[in-house]
Amino acid sequence: MAEREVIGVVGGGQMGSGIAQLAIVAGLHVLLYDSDSEALARATNSISASISRLVAKGHLSQPAGDNAMKNLKCIQNLEEFRAADVIIEAIVESEDVKKKLFSELDKIAKVSAILASNTSSISITRLASVTTRPSQVIGMHFMNPPPIMKLSEIIRGADTSDEVYVTIKSLAERLGKTVICSQDYPGFIVNRILMPMINEAFYTLYTGVATKEDIDTGMKLGTNHPMGPLELADFIGLDVCLSIMKVLHEGLGDKYSPCPLLVQYVDAGRFGRKKGIGVYLYQ
Ligand code: CAA
Ligand code: NAD
Question: What superkingdom heads the lineage (predicted)?
Answer without folding.
Answer: Eukaryota
